[in-house]
Amino acid sequence: MAEQSWNARDPRDAGGDPRHTEGGPPEAACDDIARAWDELVATARRTVADGLVVGTSGNVSVRVGDTVLVTPTGVPYDRLTPSDVTGVDLAGRQTLGTLRPTSELPMHLAIHTTTDARAVVHTHAVHATAVSTLVDELPLIHYMSGALGGPVRVAPYATYGTPELADHMLRALTGRTACLLQNHGTIAYGRSLSEAFDRTAQLEWMCRVWLTASSVPGLTPHLLTPHQLAEAGERLRGYGQPT
Question: Dmax over Cα atoms in the chain, in whole Å?
Answer without folding.
Answer: 69
